[in-house]
Amino acid sequence: MKLSLVGPTFPIKGGISHHVYWLQRELRQQGHEVQTISLQTLYPALLLRLFHRTPSIDTSRSAFETASLPLLHPTNPLTWLRAARAIRAFAPRAVIIQWWNPFFAPMLGCLSRLVKRDGTDVVFECHNVLPHERSRFDRAALRFAFATASAFLVHSQKVLEELRPIARDKPALVTPLPVIDDFAAEPTSDRSGRVILFFGLVRKYKGLDVLLAALPKVLSRLSCELIVAGEFYVPVDKYLAMAQELGVEEHVHLENRYIPNEEVPLLFDRADVLVMPYLSATQSGVILMAFLNRLPVIASRTGELVETVQEGVNGLLFPPGDADALADRLLQYFENGLGPIFSRNLETYRAPSTDVGEVIERLIDEATPA
Q: Check: CATH 3.40.50.2000 for 183-348?
């Protein structure tokens, strides 16, 4: 089957680029012929300057290279036409469009219309439907983007529930979120220490302030260290000031940068537990990366985190936003020596897998009238 993929690829950084790398590789291994249309950049330079963001460039030495055509620019409609022409020339059975942020609705919605005009089915693969930090324009953007979609592929029941009010009558399937085994390494740690890891892009909904607020209670009974590794999309000074006010700054190490691919396994090996104090969540690739590296997790009870973390087996759960409950969980974890036990339980962990090509074909068949 010939398929066109649309989404960011290396050297654009981030989890969606990683997923497109996995998806292209997986589909080709399953015997499909794949064309990948990528973006030239995620955000215009003016927007990056306005929000004090760094360019979306992945400088990893261990590059997840994807054979792709970097044709799309989010604010240049001429590039949308070029991408549609490239897809038309390839003549795929369907186009798989990555969806994760309403900012890209004009580009992806117009591209979907151009592709559908040629009679090609369009499947939106939704990592989120609504963003974690929402605006009044989100639902209008979604309706525009999804209006001509043939079907949807999602990775959690929560995302499916968000999708249904917007795309009531269109086929949709839930498949497990995959994880790239390139991030896995044989751990040298038995997780018997007291190093806490908070990993990934830092945004308000991820609850780093909840984790910081939990530390004084933990430190009153035992010594521990917190590594915060990831690029801040919120003012880092706020968290530095909070750590100082709480008197925990000597125990907190901030690495405000995008973590290159080759450093991820090493970072996970330094840690004894990954903490995910998210205020809201759909699914998470980070938790799967931790489990591949036999790193237990303490997470909030939200979204698919509840389904992924098995209480008392590979991690612990606590109510979202409850710093006191998180502190109790950290004390339980360290004082009862749960790290080595949970880590051993993860020795048999295998990442979810699916024949994604077969799933896409099922969606196309459901979307196409008999």
A: yes
The pLDDT score that the predictor gives to residue 328 is 98
pLDDT band of residue 335 (cuts 50, 70, 90) is very high
Place of tokens 């880590």: 343
DSSP H or E run through 111: helix 105-117
Which superfamily does 2-178+352-367 belong to?
Glycogen Phosphorylase B; (3.40.50.2000)
Amino acid identity of residue 225, one-letter, is E
Residues 6+ apart with CB under 8 A from 155: 126, 127, 174, 175, 176, 177, 282, 283, 304
- What is d(CA 76, CA 269) in angstroms, rounded to the nearest whole number? 43
Give which of 71, 151, 84, 144 is closest to 111, Cα–Cα. Answer: 84
**Contact in structure between 337 and 344 (CB atoms under 8 Å):** no
- Write out pLDDT tens, residues 162-198: 898 888 889 999 988 887 888 888 888 899 999 999 9
Q: For residue 357, what pLDDT is reported? A: 84
Task: Return the amino acid letter for 27.
Answer: L
Terminal CA-CA length for the chain: 19
Domains 2-178+352-367 and 183-348 alike in fold: yes
- Domain boundaries, given as residue ranges, for the chain: 2-178+352-367, 183-348
